[in-house]
Amino acid sequence: MVENNEIELSEAEAEQYDRQIRLWGLDSQKRLRASKVLIIGLSGLGAETAKNIILSGVKSVCLQDNEVLKEIDLYSQFLAPPDKIGENRAEASLVRAKALNPMVDITTETKAVDSLPDSFFTSFDIVCATGLKQEQLERINNICRDKNKKFLCGDVWGMFGYMFADLVDHQYSEEIVQHRAVKRGPDDTEKSGAATVSITVKRRAIYVPLQNALSADWSKPELRSRLRRGDPSYFVMKILLRFRDEYNRNPDPAKRKADTEVLLCMRDELVKELSLPVGFISDALFTDVFGIVSGAAAVVGGVIGQEVVKAMSQREPPHNNMFFFNPVKCVGFVELYGQ
């Protein structure tokens, strides 16, 4: 939990964040202003996430990436200019990131995540990881959980995307609206209408680690019943993560035919492994998982940024625990896995 007792907003900050203060209150903005955020991976999704978090008015943001900027990144990565191709993606994004909000302290880290010590990740209040292998995601998630630090991760492949959140034991406030009958009359017994009253209630949400969410037991009746809804996004995510783990890369637009065949083979293996209905994960879902489409990055990056703001401000119910964007249905939805 971020403490904000000693944080005071300057006159310039109060003016800059006036709309946000009116929206979620001064105390919530103070908590945001005290928050230190790590963003891993400056692809198109990382850039969208960084933009939203920087504009919200946190204390500091660290951009971590050991990859160099490639021409394909420019289709969705708007923080790095074209003349920075060949340079580190985080450092290439720094100038434009700082211009978004000069009141936020923005730094970079160019070492690979595997070479960074546990203490690096726990020096932040919340970690947002993109573009990593499953083993790396689980390692960082467990490091964060051990120190009660919040963790989010997500990815976009083509037009498909997901987000996972582990806020450990999260407490927050929620404003709810109640309708109460109003009694008027000489003896205060006659009902003459209703009044709308807003009250703030304290709530608590318990989360599970990523490892639990990705190893959900699909033999359980409560999970099997979800198959009737007909959305296979969870399984598409697992297949795409498996592809990255095995090939150390994402599906490549230049190898579309060969990579599609690999993905379909992985699909067939997963269907057999989990006894899923034949045809449940259609071929069409793998036609748009190449590169990063900027629109999908904007959707998923917007959700991640929103969840960081809610988590750090401790205001309004956060998503628990997975968000998916299905491009075939053009719909986003939240589901809980691992409990």
The value of Rg in angstroms is 22 Å
Number of domains: 3
Q: What is the typical, i.e. mean, pLDDT?
A: 91
* Beta-strand percent range: 15-25%
CATH homologous superfamily label of the largest domain = NAD(P)-binding Rossmann-like Domain
What is the SS-derived class? Answer: alpha/beta
The end-to-end distance, rounded to whole angstroms, is 23 Å
Q: Helix tally?
A: 12
For the largest sheet, list the strands in their spatial order: 3-2-1-4-5-6-9-10
Main sheet attributes: strand count, strand direction, barrel closure: 8 strands, mixed
What is the approximate shape?
globular
- SSE order: HHHEHEHEHEHEEEEHHHHHEE
CATH topology category name of the largest domain: Rossmann fold
**Which runs of at least 5 residues are low in confidence (pLDDT < 50)?**
none
Helix content percent band: 25-40%
- Using the 3D structure, state the CATH architecture of the largest domain: 3-Layer(aba) Sandwich
Top CATH class of the largest domain: Alpha Beta
Number of strands: 10
